[in-house]
Structures are given as C-alpha cells and as structure tokens.
UniProtKB/TrEMBL annotation:
This is Cytochrome aa3 subunit 3. Belongs to the cytochrome c oxidase subunit 3 family. It comes from the Bacteria. It comes from Haloechinothrix salitolerans. It is found in: Cell membrane; Membrane. Pfam families: COX3.
Amino acid sequence: MGSQLALRGVGARRQDGHVPSEPWLWLFLLADMTVFGLFFGAYLWEFGSARDAFTADANALYVPLGFVNTLVLLTSSLFVVRAVESHRLGAFARARRYLTGTILGAGSFAVIKLGEYALELAHGHGLTSSDFFMYYFVITGVHLMHVGIGTSVLVAWHRSLRSGHCAFRTRWVEGVAGYWHMVDLLWLIIFSLLYIGSPA
C-alpha cells in the first residue's frame, strides 16, 4: 500500500523543479505579507516622527517573553518541515508526531502572548494609551489571529492522519507548511522591529 501511495505522488520525494504547494497560495501569501508590509511601513514612518516617545514606550515591552516566543515559533517551524518530509514519504504516523509538536508550539505562543497582553494592560498600556501601543496591539493582534488560523489548518492535517493515511494531497500540506513559515517570518520581523529595534 505504501509503495502504491508513493507511485501516486502522495508519499513520493520531491522531483527536480517541483514547486511546493499551489501557485495561488503563493499569491495569497504575497498579498498577506504586503498588508503586513504596509503596517510596518506606517509604523516606521510614525516612529521617525516621534522617536523619543516610541522608544520610551518600547522599553516597556517584555523582551524575554518575545524572545521565548521567537524560539517557540522557530522550533514549531522545524517540526512542520519534518512533518512535510514524513508526509511525502508516506510516514504518516511520524508526520503526526511532528505536527503534535508544532501545534503545542502554536498553543504555547498564544498563551505567552496573551499573558504578555495582560501584563501590559495591568501597567496601563492599552490600545489607546499611545501611538506605539496602538501599533503594538494591532500588529501583534493581527499576527496572533494568523497563528490561530494556522493552528486550525494544522489541526485539520493532524486529525486526517489518525487512521494511518491522509486524504490531503502533498501540495495541500506543503501549503499549510508555507503558511506557517510565513507566520514565523512575520514574527521575526515584528520581534526585530518592536522589541529590539525600537528601544535602541
């Protein structure tokens, strides 16, 4: 059965010239990242106009929590890479184990982020307290929404592997992985911009 699946391309290794996922998904990811790019551009414009105020507010962020979340997402991306590799080979039980790690990472990220929000709000830093915190809550909030969407499709992929086979095509799971890598990349930019670059 495994060899038949491999011959059909479900568990086959990538061929030379293979482009992961579907072309339309890359257009979607590009459009999504363009929206974030506009957020980042607007933030940098405002930062340049009120650098001292933005820097003072940025120093109130909990950098260690942001750093931990960065490590969490990087680790989850590594797991999703391994899950895709296993899926291509038809090793669905192994893919499911890696996906478990990715989903746990996504949940951990969300818990830490919500905890960080609670800390900021407890210290009087809300959406309307300053321009910096308006951008902080909007940008990280939209990103957290993307984490939730990504987690939903990861869970769907994970559930499909319970019976030892998968109804989803390889290109579909490559698309899920591509979306998760985008979530990871966006967080790296957010962490670098808000947590590291702004307080400097």
